């Protein structure tokens, strides 16, 4: 481990919840070294964009929303018999582009058949996820949109605790859209409605209501 990687690791290992720290002029080798040292540490997301490294820690509220979005999509997959592959907060990185990020969640829909049954993804050659999730209840992820554009992610969902916005990649930039490209039965308003219900209803009540709504589409 280099001295820089060691310094980065010591710093991020002691961050409190809901913290963001940014480092400049970090090499790709030190970025990858930090990823190895951190491993699968929960509640920690690292992004890298041409020398700028950002580390963010999350809170239980953040993780709750991220997990529940995944549960909604899982319910949809089962009810509508759509093959969706879930890769959580997998590190999406491409050395050639000098970009990398760990979203709050990611799914393959259109490219699910391409990935097939593989458990390991090589983002240098494999397609990026069709949908990436960012939960912004304590942090604003809009600065990461150019990073995801550089990684070729077609669709980014952002939830700020109040509303979920769908951002579609068009000519290297994201534009807000009312409807998901990968899952066109879902709109920003529908997703916002069911996520907002977490304030007053149990997970089970919301998932049952969501499943009943899905059945109405059949």
Key words describing this protein structure:
7 helices; 218 residues; alpha+beta; six-stranded mixed β-sheet; five-stranded antiparallel β-sheet
Give the arrangement of secondary structure elements.
Layout: H1 3-12, E1 20-23, H2 28-38, E2 44-49, E3 52-57, H3 60-80, E4 85-86, E5 92-94, E6 99-101, E7 105-108, H4 112-115, E8 131-135, H5 145-151, E9 155-159, E10 164-170, E11 173-177, H6 188-196, H7 203-216
Helix pairs in contact: 1-2, 3-7
In short:
With 218 residues, the chain is α+β, with helices and mostly antiparallel strands. Helix content is 35%, strand content 23%.
What does this structure look like?
There is one protein chain. This protein has 218 residues and is of the alpha+beta class. 35% of the residues lie in helices and 23% in strands. The strands form two sheets. The protein has a six-stranded mixed beta sheet with strand order 4-7-8-9-10-11. A five-stranded antiparallel beta sheet has the order 1-3-2-6-5, sandwiched between helices. β8 (131-135), α5 and β9 form a beta-alpha-beta unit. It is globular. It contains seven helices and eleven strands. It has helices at 3-12, 28-38, 60-80, 112-115, 145-151, 188-196, 203-216, and strands spanning 20-23, 44-49, 52-57, 85-86, 92-94, 99-101, 105-108, 131-135, 155-159, 164-170, 173-177.
């Amino acid at each position: 481990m280099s001295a820089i990687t060691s310094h980065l690791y010591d710093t991020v290992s002691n961050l409190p919840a809901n913290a963001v720290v940014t480092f400049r002029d970090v090499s790709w080798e030190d970025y990858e070294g930090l990823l190895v040292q951190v491993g699968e540490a929960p509640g920690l997301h690292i992004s890298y964009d041409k020398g700028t490294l950002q580390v963010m820690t999350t809170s239980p509220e953040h993780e709750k929303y991220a997990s529940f979005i995944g549960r909604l999509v899982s319910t949809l997959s089962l009810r509508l018999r759509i093959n969706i592959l879930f890769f959580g907060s997998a590190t999406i990185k491409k050395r050639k582009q000098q970009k990398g990020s760990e979203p709050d969640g990611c799914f393959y829909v259109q490219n699910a058949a391409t990935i097939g049954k593989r458990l390991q993804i090589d983002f240098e050659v494999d397609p990026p996820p069709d949908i990436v999730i960012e939960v912004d209840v304590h942090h604003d992820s809009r600065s990461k949109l150019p990073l995801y554009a550089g990684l070729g992610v077609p669709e980014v969902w952002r939830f700020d605790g109040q509303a979920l916005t769908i951002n579609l990649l068009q000519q290297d930039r994201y534009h807000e859209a009312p409807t998901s490209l990968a899952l066109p039965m879902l709109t920003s308003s529908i997703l916002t409605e069911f996520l907002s219900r977490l304030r007053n209803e149990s997970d089970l009540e919301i998932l049952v209501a969501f499943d009943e709504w899905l059945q109405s589409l059949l």
